[in-house]
Amino acid sequence: MSEVHPTAVIDPSATVADGVHVGAYSIIGAEVSIGAGSWVGPHVVIQGPTRIGADNRIFQFASVGEQPQDKKFRGELTYLEIGDGNTIREFVTINRGTGDGGGVTRIGDDNWIMAYCHIAHDCLIGSHTVFANNASLAGHVEVADHVILGGFSLVHQFCRLGAYSFLAFGAHVDRDVPPYVMAAGQRATPRGLNLEGLRRHGFSRHEIRELKEAYRVLYRSGLRVEEAAAELADRTDPAVAALATFVRASHRGIIR
Fold first, then answer.
1. Which residues in 190-208 are b (16+ Cβ under 10 Å) and which e?
2. Catalytic pick among 101, 139, 150, 162
């Protein structure tokens, strides 16, 4: 059975699975689904349509699934989807999608989202990411798996953060950050590879050596971005190939 505090308000159309805890004065709105084993603290507001998977933890004063902060939004049917095993800390705000922006904000599994973070409409977040306090995403941002965002980092709309990339404290990102790259500064620039992150996630010495050479080609060879990406596309290492694919697919351009 679910454990729902008597002061909590749950809309009749909401679905709360067995084993879900809902704390005092929390509000679960219409068309919200919460999976088994999830924990919702006190004073949390969850609006729908929102689907939340199993074993998530949502702490007090979070606002999840509210309407997007977009003047073009006219009440159209849009969604928020959250996977399993995520931690969403105090005062985090996560908005639903917009009708002309894909219609859905999506968050994967096992993400750690610290206090005061903001995830705007139509963002697509992978799995195993870390958002340090006050990290904020504008609309339509894509964050791949295993990305770390430092405290107070900001990401401009339509930017992409590649897998295993790392944003330093206070980084302001206005272009795409390629996979495996560290970014820092008020207008974020590349600061080498995320070597510690690569080692922690089991990248071999050979893979890291290949990525170091790829970084040299991309950032230190004097080649234009298109030329560097074309050269990297011929490499056989899968991690380098993924880097080249990301760069060639960039619409906003990459940090340089």
1. beebbeebbeeeebeeebb
2. 139
Q: Residues in the chain, how many?
A: 256
Q: What structural domains and CATH numbers belong to the chain? A: 3-140 (2.160.10.10), 199-248 (no CATH)
Of the listed 23, 29, 53, 121, which one is catalytic? 121
Please, are residues 239 and 203 in contact by the beta-carbon 8 Å criterion?
yes
Of 230, 183, 192, residue with least CA distance to 211:
192
- 145 is an active site residue: no
Report the mean per-residue pLDDT for the chain.
97
H-only helix segments in 9-107: none
Q: Are 40 and 70 in contact (CB under 8 A)?
A: no
pTM: 0.96
Distance CA 86, CA 113 (A): 8
Q: pLDDT tens, 151-204? A: 999 999 999 999 999 999 999 999 999 999 999 999 999 999 999 999 999 999
The residue to which tokens 């993400």 are assigned: 111
Marked catalytic residue, from 122, 145, 146, 151: 122
122 as an active site residue: the answer is yes
Whether 18 is catalytic? no
Q: In what order do the strands lie in the sheet with 142-143?
A: 15-16, 32-34, 50-52, 79-82, 104-107, 124-125, 142-143, 160-161
